[in-house]
């Protein structure tokens, strides 16, 4: 029987806490290191629905990518979502462990999982921040149109309601691809510096994305916003496989089937509609 301390030690071999960015909050959030762990549940976000899913599965440990307590909290009353989450974890006797930016940069971490989903070979770090390789850049086996590449990425990532947003000429040929899971509009300069034809990331805001396209004068790097959840959730199966390899049959490992993308549907713009109409 594995204790929580045993399982945490294995997790931290894969995703060392010291590899996290200085602003990040990773590690054990709830739980007693001496408690036993028979079932581990993996998810991207520790939402109320995910916690309920973990309780229904009889999980002893919920392992998520995104932190529950990123900033200061002054109350854990159930009148707030975070308070209700903490209460549900404690009442359900579920430990919560978080690996965030340390999982982004790890070997077989979030960035490499996204690069693999995009079909890249010869993967290298996109940029170094605080001494850590952030994002990845690599090559496709052959040059293909931006439209075809976006279709392949869409098919490879977990399905999310919003899908992909693409900026660029659909028929432009692309081969060199930069990726960064989650919010990545801080790496536009890095994508240009490595001469990427297209940059795959998420959470692209209007002004930074517009300025990036202006800098490219309409050419590369083209942009694909794959959505925060989808661009990172592709890592969960890798994490599950790596944990199973190390924990063996001692711990049952499950992966959440819930899509925690906050958006639920899109409305296609009416053709011809525009400002003033």
From TrEMBL:
Keyword Cytoplasm applies: no
Pfam families reported for this sequence: DUF34_NIF3
GO MF assignments: metal ion binding
Residues annotated to bind a divalent metal cation: 65-66, 104, 228, 232
Coiled coil: none
Keyword Metal-binding found: yes
Protein keywords: Metal-binding
InterPro entries (UniProt xref): DUF34/NIF3, DUF34/NIF3_sf
GO CC annotation: cytoplasm
Cross-referenced PANTHER family: GTP CYCLOHYDROLASE 1 TYPE 2 HOMOLOG, NGG1 INTERACTING FACTOR 3
Stated family: Belongs to the GTP cyclohydrolase I type 2/NIF3 family.
Self-association state and partner proteins as the record states: Homohexamer.
Protein name: GTP cyclohydrolase 1 type 2 homolog
Organism from which the protein derives: Nostocoides australiense Ben110
């Amino acid at each position: 029987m594995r204790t929580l301390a045993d399982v945490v030690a294995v997790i931290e071999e894969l995703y060392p806490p010291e590899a996290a960015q200085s602003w990040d909050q990773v590690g054990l959030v709830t739980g007693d290191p001496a408690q036993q762990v028979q079932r581990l549940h993996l998810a991207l976000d520790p939402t109320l629905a995910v916690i309920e899913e973990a309780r229904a599965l009889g999980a002893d440990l919920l392992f998520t990518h995104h932190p529950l307590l990123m900033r200061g909290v002054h109350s854990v009353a159930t009148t707030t979502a975070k308070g209700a989450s903490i209460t549900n974890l404690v009442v359900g006797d579920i430990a919560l462990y978080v690996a965030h930016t340390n999982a982004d940069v790890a070997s077989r971490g979030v960035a490499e999982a996204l690069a693999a989903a995009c079909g890249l070979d010869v993967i290298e770090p996109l940029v170094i921040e605080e001494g850590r390789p952030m994002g990845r850049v690599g090559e496709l086996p052959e040059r293909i149109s931006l439209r075809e590449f976006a279709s392949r990425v869409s098919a490879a990532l977990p399905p999310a309601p919003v899908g992909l947003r693409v900026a660029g000429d659909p028929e432009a040929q692309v081969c060199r691809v930069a990726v960064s899971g989650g919010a990545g509009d801080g790496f536009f300069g890095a994508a240009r510096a490595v001469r990427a034809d297209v940059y795959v990331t998420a959470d692209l805001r209007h002004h930074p994305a517009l300025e990036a396209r202006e800098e490219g004068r309409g050419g590369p790097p083209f942009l694909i916003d794959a959505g925060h959840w989808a661009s990172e959730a592709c890592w969960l199966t890798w994490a599950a496989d790596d944990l199973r390899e190390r924990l063996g049959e001692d711990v049952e490992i499950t992966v959440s089937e819930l899509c925690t993308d906050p958006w639920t549907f899109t409305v296609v713009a009416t053709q011809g509609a525009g400002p003033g109409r």
